[in-house]
Each structure stands twice: as C-alpha cells, then as structure tokens.
Amino acid sequence: LCSNLASGLMSLAISTLRKYLDAFNAHSIEDVLSHLDDKIQVFVDGNLMAEGKENVRASYVTDFEARKQATLVHDPVLVGEDSSTSRVSVVLSTGQLQLDVVYTFRVQDMKQVKHEISNIRKVE
Q1: Over the stretch 31-58, which tens digit does the pLDDT of each residue have?
Q2: Which of 32, 34, 64, 85 has a 20 to 30 Å separation from 15 between CA atoms?
Q3: Alpha carbon distances (Å) from 60 to 21, 35, 56, 63
Q4: Local structure of 61: helix, strand or coil
C-alpha cells in the first residue's frame, strides 16, 4: 500500500508539473498562477529572488511577452517526498537557455510552494 501511495503521489506531482508547463507554453498567466501557492518562493542559485504569487507574476508576463517556451530536456524525476511535500527535478530548455529546476509541491493540494533554479547556461 505504501509503495502504491508513493507511486500515486509521484505520478500526480509529475502530471501536475506537466499541466503547469502546458499552461506556461500556452502563455496563460492565470492558469500558471493557479498552480502556485500564494506564498510561493523562487530561489536562483540558493538566493531567494521572489516570494508570493503576485510578486512572481511579472516574471511570467515578461517571459510570455518574449514568447518563451519551456521544453523538458529529460523526463521529470522525483527527488524527494515526505508526508507533506513532493519534489520533482527537471532540466528545462527555453531555446536560448537550459536550467535545472526543482519544483516542490504541497501534497495536500499539489500547489507549488518552491522553485529552486540553478545551473543556468546558454545553449549553443
């Protein structure tokens, strides 16, 4: 039963992440924000860069105005989970950049509570 529950949470976190990326690629700001906790925290290279859904809205608007698309470089990987959170790691490409992101989901409602962005690099 425990392994079935863990497998279910993993697939739920990954499917929720894919829906978030679909909303991002559709440039649907309200759909993207619906995936985020009101107190979302965004870290870049370990530094808190933004906190709160309304504070991260501007970065999404900028991305959408630039017509950015995010594609998975490899399949998402579950890198940690406990009774309250699931963490999913991905490598994303925006065409010009690749970046590593760990998304932390609150298990209760699958809202994203933290983005940890690192290893940002230009794509040749």
Answers
A1: 999 999 999 999 999 999 999 999 999 9
A2: 64
A3: 12, 13, 7, 5
A4: helix
